[in-house]
Write a structure and sequence with these properties.
Number of helices: 15
Helix content: 40-55%
CATH topology of the largest domain: Rossmann fold
Largest sheet: 6 strands, parallel
Distance between the termini: 24 Å
Structural class: alpha/beta
Strand content: 5-15%
CATH architecture of the largest domain: 3-Layer(aba) Sandwich
CATH superfamily of the largest domain: Glycogen Phosphorylase B
CATH class of the largest domain: Alpha Beta
Number of strands: 12
Number of domains: 2
Order of helices and strands: HEHEHEHEHEHEEHEHHEHEHEHEHHH
Strand order of the largest sheet: 9-8-7-10-11-12
Radius of gyration: 21 Å
C-alpha cells in the first residue's frame, strides 16, 4: 500500500480498515506513507512494516527510496491511494511490473495551476496503461474521469467507500440547548470550503439566527496561510468569534458528533466523504453542498438538505430549511437506512478483496 498522508481524514480511515481486513484474510501487508499525522502510529499498531516516505511532492530522493523499498519487499500487488502516491507508485512499478491498483479518492484538477494540471493529466493518461485496475469511489468521480479522458472501460471500476456500523449513542450530548449546534469533520483546506463555512456564520449573524459552529480537523502546512486568513476574519467579529470554534485534530471526534444537531459539509469537491456516512450512522441531520460524492448520499429533503449553490447564502438557506423542517426524524431515518444498505464497510472490503483475487489468480510464486 502507498498513501499520501497519515493525517486524520476519510482516506486513512478507508486505508486502515482495508489493511486490517487484508491482514485478517492472511495477506501480508506493508505500507509506504509519510509520518505527518495521527494515523501513522495506528498503522504501526497493525503489526505491519511502515516505511516513512513522503509522496506528496516531487522528489528524486523519495522516488529512489520508494524503488528501493519495492525491490526489497518484492510485493505481488501494489495498491496506491491518491494523486501523489499514484504517480510515485505506478512510475516505479514500470520497472517491476507487479500487479497494480490505484484508487483516486477524489481526483480533481479544477483548482490546479495550468502546469500542474497538464502534468497530472498527462501522467494519468500514460500511467493508466501501466495500471491493472483503477478504482473510483463514487459515480461522480467516475463521471469526471470519463469527462477528462482517464476512464478506461476495461480497467476502471466503481467501489463505493463504506463505513462500519457503530453504536454512537454511548457519547452523551451536552450542547447548549438554547441554540442549535452545527459541526463538521474537516481539515482546514480550500477544497473543503472552510472559508464558505466562516462566511455562512457571518450570514447567520446578518439574519439574526443564533447557532454554534464547530470545526474538527487539522491544518496541512500548505494551507496555514489560508487558515490564518480565516482566523483574521473571525477576530474582527466578536459575534462570530463567540459562535465559531476551531477544535483542531481530536482523538475522539465521534464524542463531539453527538453534540451536533446538524452535520454540515461545505466542500467545493469530494470523492466520497466518509464523514457524511458516519454522520448518517450517528443519526444526525445532514446539510451539504451539492457536489460529487455528497449528492450520492444526500438527496435534498429526502435524506438531508443540499445547498442550491456554492455560496454562504445558499448554505445558510439549506441550514435554515433543515432547522425548520417538520420531517427531521423521517429524513434522518431514511439517510440512516440508505447508508446501512448501500455504503457498508463490508461491501467495500469484499469488492476490493475480490478484485485482488481476480488480479492474482494467475500468480505463481517462485519463492521457497
Amino acid at each position: 500500500m502507498i498513501g499520501v498522508s497519515s493525517a486524520a481524514g476519510g482516506g486513512n480511515v478507508h486505508l486502515f480498515a482495508l489493511m486490517k481486513h487484508l491482514i485478517s484474510k492472511g495477506f501480508k501487508v506493508s505500507l509506504i506513507i509519510p509520518d505527518n499525522g495521527i494515523f501513522y502510529s495506528d498503522f504501526e499498531k497493525l503489526g505491519i512494516v511502515v516505511y516513512n516516505i513522503d509522496c506528496r511532492k516531487l522528489s528524486l530522493r523519495s522516488f529512489i527510496r520508494l524503488i528501493f523499498v519495492i525491490k526489497q519487499t518484492v510485493p505481488d500487488l501494489i495498491h496506491t491511494h491518491g494523486k501523489g502516491a499514484g504517480l510515485y507508485g505506478r512510475l516505479s512499478n514500470i520497472l517491476f511490473r507487479k500487479k497494480s491498483v490505484h484508487t483516486f479518492h477524489g481526483f480533481y484538477l479544477g483548482n490546479e495551476t495550468k502546469v500542474r494540471k497538464l502534468i497530472f493529466l498527462f501522467s494519468e493518461l500514460v500511467l493508466r496503461h501501466f495500471t491493472d485496475q483503477l478504482i473510483a469511489v463514487s459515480k461522480g468521480e467516475l463521471s469526471y474521469l470519463k469527462k477528462i479522458g482517464i476512464f478506461d472501460l476495461n480497467n476502471t471500476k466503481l467501489i463505493y467507500n463504506g463505513v462500519e456500523k457503530i453504536n454512537f449513542s454511548e457519547s452523551k450530548s451536552v450542547q447548549n440547548k438554547n441554540r442549535p449546534v452545527i459541526g463538521t469533520f474537516s481539515r482546514i483546506d480550500y477544497a473543503k470550503g472552510i472559508d464558505l463555512l466562516v462566511q455562512t456564520v457571518i450570514e447567520f449573524q446578518k439574519r439574526g439566527i443564533d447557532a454554534e459552529f464547530h470545526i474538527l480537523g487539522g491544518t496541512p502546512k500548505e494551507y496555514e496561510s489560508y487558515y490564518h486568513e480565516i482566523l483574521e476574519i473571525t477576530k474582527q467579529n466578536n459575534w462570530v468569534r463567540d459562535r465559531l470554534f476551531f477544535q483542531g485534530e481530536v482523538s475522539r471526534p465521534h464524542a463531539f458528533l453527538q453534540k451536533f444537531d446538524i452535520y454540515l459539509c461545505t466542500s467545493r469537491r469530494e470523492g466520497f466523504p466518509l464523514a457524511l456516512l458516519e454522520a448518517a450512522l450517528s443519526q444526525k441531520l445532514i446539510v451539504s453542498t451539492n457536489v460529487c460524492g455528497c449528492n450520492e448520499i444526500v438527496e435534498d429533503e429526502v435524506t438531508g438538505f443540499l445547498a442550491k449553490g456554492l455560496t454562504p447564502e445558499h448554505i445558510a438557506d439549506a441550514i435554515e430549511r433543515a432547522l425548520n423542517s417538520q420531517k427531521k426524524q423521517q429524513i434522518i431515518d431514511q439517510c440512516f437506512q440508505k447508508v446501512c444498505h448501500d455504503f457498508s464497510l463490508n461491501k467495500m472490503l469484499e469488492k476490493t478483496c475480490k478484485l485482488y483475487t481476480l488480479l492474482l489468480q494467475d500468480w505463481k510464486s517462485d519463492r521457497i
